[in-house]
Amino acid sequence: MTFKTPTQRLLLLLFALILAGLTGCNGSARASLEASSTPTATITNTPTPTQTSTPAFTITPQPSLTPTITATPFNTLTPTPEPSPVPDRPAVLFPYRDINGKTVDWSYIHVTQIDYNQFDEVNDLWAFMSFQLLDRAIYHRNLEFLGEDITVYYLNVAHEFNGDMIQMQLVLGGTPGKDVAIEDIPAGGSAYIQVQVRESWQSFAPYVTHRDANRAYEYSDESYPLYFLKELQALLPSLPDEIILLADHPILFPQDDWPQVKLDMSRVSYLAARYQPFFEIDDYDRLIDQSAFAEALTDHILDGVDIPAGLYAYSSQTLIIIEGN
Known about the structure:
single chain, alpha+beta, 30% strand, elongated
């Protein structure tokens, strides 16, 4: 094609310049892309977190508001072994009758006080019980009450229940502390026991003895003296072979009196020692019931029910020692 006019040639020149510019831009763009192309990203895996499970909330058990009642066993009394064995010297029975003409033998029991509640149930019971002294020593064991240790002193005795001789402990008293020797008992009520020694020609009136021996202190009868336990310990070997022990003590206590009984036990160690065999005491040292032994002994006294085999403890508030020939 021939461009004849200057205008045509000028337009042709402009077109060629524009075309050349477009071609240069396109090559520059490709070079730029090739030179600065973004490298392929390296994929870094985000670590999967280790799942540590939160432990379930652990509840630490707390004491129940309703305490589990664990009664003190009444037939598992374990005496503290003595440093040296004591030879057996069982007392010998001799003919003797009380003022009512009743034979006093190893099965003798005489009710000295009895009362009833509103349901006509016996809830207050005292009795004199006879015992055969098996040797001439005073033993001890330990009792814990209200977090305090008490040394309990007792005699090794036996009583006949429906033809069966059952060995028992006759509790005399107690003192604060553990394994306290009789010689180390501090001065005070814990060191004493009310004892009367009689000869076989003297009469024994159980109710009168109970009444007179339990008078208020200001009206106390001088014929029922207080012995030091160490004096009684010295007396025992000198007694003849023919002796009968008679011990008077409450067996059942009116339930309305239990708060006072517990208060007395908390304040006076010898009362804690004497009362403990007749109560069921829970882990919180509450008096929750009369002991199974107290109930069984009541049934035996009132209805002649047999006493199951076991090692039991009776207590002495007043101890009468009757000597034979």
